[in-house]
Amino acid sequence: MLEQHARLILRDLYSSWEGSDLFGTLSYFAPSAVFAVHATEGASLIGAGQGLNDLGNRLEEFLQRVEVREFKLLQVVSKGMWTQSRAFFRYRHRNGSMEVDGTMRHLWKFVGDEVAHFELFHDSQCMRAFYAMAALESAA
Q1: Cα 57 to Cα 65: distance, rounded to the nearest angstrom
Q2: Whole-number Å distance between alpha carbons of 108 and 120
């Protein structure tokens, strides 16, 4: 996929995610999309899965617990059939005032304009601390 084309798709996909638009976010994924989230204990998205139903359920569970305050595309690099991106995020836990921000990396494989394969990598220690502190805040 051409890097510029991937950049346009990802800009729009990230904009949907930033607006907590689950339907809009899922509209960029192929029905049988494969995904893997290399993440933190406590994160509802952790692990691998396949298909829009599985991905949609995990994203919905995440959005029930976390508000997406900001999500911006920082970098896109395409090589062959794979595209890598880096995004800035800022999340707030819905059970209190705890916020976290940082960057995450994504690996994409597009078939036409649809995401056929998606992987997410982020700072596990940072997210682990976010979930732990949010749980403490909720318990207080």
Answers
A1: 13
A2: 9
Q: How far apart are CA 54 and CA 50, in angstroms?
A: 6
How far apart are the C-alpha atoms of 36 and 74, rounded to whole Å?
Answer: 21
Residue 12 amino acid letter: D
Q: How buried is residue 23: exposed, middle or buried, by Cβ count under 10 Å (0-12/13-18/19+)?
A: exposed
Alpha carbon distance 93, 51 (integer Å): 27
Mean pLDDT by 10 residues, the chain (140 residues): 87 97 98 87 72 94 94 95 96 90 95 94 81 80
Q: Domains of the chain, with CATH numbers?
A: 3-89+102-123 (3.10.450.50)
